[in-house]
């Protein structure tokens, strides 16, 4: 349990830090000052900045920095364009403090609020882009190592190992059911002969009508041998009564791993968007969707399961989490990046910004609703566990 919590914190920290890094890099590139970029959340353990002489100096508290800023000594006074890089005590991701991000300091040229709308949109959207880039990078690394996935339709450049047939479903009272086959079983051999494709499996079963066949299975890292007698369930070919798909560890050469990683990122992103669309459609129809959510406890548990399966599964799950974070953040909901972009679009249409006080109220309400949702799904997670 302790190890699961540690791994979950590390995964979450990477996702949040990469997201904030997107805001930081884009803001700096577009001439907006970033006052602080922190690893973890305050209170601050250690910070560093450049003075007027271009040398790095260390600080250990926010009060200390305020005193240094008012000093006349160029050896300790922070340079106006300097960013504090901080290490903080709460190890949960990170943050970036952008000058003028709350709508103030509009007269300063290096303030976020003084920038053109398109620049502000780019800075806000950069976090989402970085989460997508991270997923692409993780999937690409996965393909260099070898990703477990369906091997039914892969590129001719693919190198497949540990191939087998995965049982997707078992019909009740079928030969497979009576033999004890279960969903998720991996069939690696029939009568001692390796099976790696769906066609080979079907041919082997078809040639053994009403004969007993020995199936070698892999289940939870254990090898099992079971016997079953294929029968003609529908008056046609011999069948076991299962639905299957070919699976294996798929690996690509270095260059192609990035191409296939990009493809997989696109497919996963599309599926996540469709899933969110279906979820919101169910909400509008008044259908129950609480079981489709997982809170911090549920995600931590799934993270632990992925870690126990192996590094490559944790890699895949982290990539999927990163894509989910990207989609959630771009939703036009107050307090999220997408909500802030929505207010910028309203500003573009109206020709003037929404009053800062009004926008702040919307974002505060949105944040409160998000916190209530997290509390609700966390309660549901605890109820499921106990």
Structure overview:
The strands form two sheets. Strands 4, 5, 6, 7, 8, 9 and 10 form a seven-stranded antiparallel beta sheet that branches. Strands 2-1-3 form a three-stranded antiparallel beta sheet. It has a domain at 159-251: PDZ domain (Pdz3 Domain, Roll), CATH 2.30.42. It is an alpha+beta fold and 386 residues long. The protein is elongated. The longest helix has 31 residues, at 254-284. The protein is 49% helix and 22% strand. It has helices at residues 2-29, 62-69, 117-145, 175-179, 198-206, 254-284, 296-309, 311-330, 337-350, 356-385, and strands spanning 34-50, 56-59, 84-98, 147-150, 159-170, 186-190, 193-194, 213-219, 222-228, 242-251.
The SSE order reads: HEEHEHEEHEEHEEEHHHHH
Structural class: alpha+beta
Terminal-residue CA separation: 15 Å
Could you give a short account of the major beta sheet? 7 strands, antiparallel
- Mean pLDDT, to the nearest integer, reads 83
Quickly give the CATH architecture of the domain at 159-251.
Answer: Roll
- The number of distinct helices, counting runs of at least 4 residues, comes to 10
Secondary structure: helix percent: 40-55%
Gross morphology: elongated
CATH topology-level name of the domain at 159-251: Pdz3 Domain
Gyration radius from CA atoms, angstroms: 27 Å
Strand percentage? 15-25%
CATH superfamily of the domain at 159-251: PDZ domain
Low-confidence stretches: none
> Can you count the beta strands?
10
CATH hierarchy, class of the domain at 159-251: Mainly Beta
């Amino acid at each position: 349990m302790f190890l699961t919590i540690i791994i979950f914190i590390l995964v979450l920290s990477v996702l949040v830090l990469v997201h904030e890094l997107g805001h930081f890099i884009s803001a700096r590139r577009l001439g907006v000052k970033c006052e602080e970029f922190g690893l973890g959340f305050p209170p601050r353990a250690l910070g560093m900045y450049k003075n007027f002489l271009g040398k790095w100096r260390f600080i250990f508290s926010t009060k200390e920095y305020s005193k240094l800023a008012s000093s006349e000594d160029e050896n300790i006074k922070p340079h106006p364009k300097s960013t504090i890089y901080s290490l903080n005590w709460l190890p949960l991701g990170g943050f970036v403090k952008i000058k003028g991000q709350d709508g103030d300091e509009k007269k300063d040229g290096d303030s976020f609020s003084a920038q053109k709308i398109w620049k502000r949109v780019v800075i806000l959207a950069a976090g989402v882009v970085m989460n997508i880039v991270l997923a692409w990078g993780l999937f690409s690394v996965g393909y260099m190592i070898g990703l477990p996935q369906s091997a039914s339709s892969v590129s001719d450049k693919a190198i497949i190992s540990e191939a087998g047939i995965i049982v997707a479903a078992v019909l009740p009272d079928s030969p497979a059911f009576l033999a004890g086959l279960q969903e998720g079983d991996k069939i690696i051999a029939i009568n001692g002969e390796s099976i790696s494709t769906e066609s080979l499996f079907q041919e082997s079963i078809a040639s053994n009508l009403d004969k007993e066949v020995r199936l070698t299975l892999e289940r939870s890292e254990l090898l099992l041998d079971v016997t079953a007698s294929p029968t003609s369930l529908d008056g046609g070919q011999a069948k076991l009564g299962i639905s299957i798909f070919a699976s294996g560890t798929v690996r690509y050469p270095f260059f192609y791993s990035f191409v296939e990683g990009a493809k997989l990122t696109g497919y996963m992103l599309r599926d996540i968007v469709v899933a969110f669309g279906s979820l919101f459609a169910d909400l509008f129809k008044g259908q129950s969707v609480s079981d489709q959510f997982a809170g911090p406890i549920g995600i931590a548990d799934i993270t632990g399961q992925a870690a126990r399966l192996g590094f490559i599964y944790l890699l895949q799950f982290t990539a999927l989490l990163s894509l989910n974070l990207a989609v959630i953040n771009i939703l036009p909901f107050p307090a999220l990046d997408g909500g802030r972009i929505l207010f910028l679009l309203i500003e573009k249409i109206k020709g003037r910004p929404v009053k800062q006080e009004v926008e702040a109220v919307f974002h505060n309400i949105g944040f409160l609703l998000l916190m209530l949702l997290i509390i609700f799904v966390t309660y549901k997670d605890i109820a499921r566990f106990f």
